[in-house]
Please model this.
Amino acid sequence: MVAWRADRRLTLYVPGIEASTTVDDPRGAEDAVRELIADLTGVPADEITCDIRLGRPWRSGA
Model:
């Protein structure tokens, strides 16, 4: 997962399923990503692990 700040929120992007969500409080980021993945894939949220890094899903100037 990739995360970045935008408009006082944290945007979270999951490249593997090309989906994103936002949270107001970064402490809820992992739970939000797990719920997003669970909703879209049917995998139980408690079976999903997250590795969130700060950055952007694309590279500029490449």
Observations:
- The chain has a mean pLDDT of 89.
- The chain has one domain: 2-54.
- The beta strands are 2-6, 9-14, 19-23, 53-54.
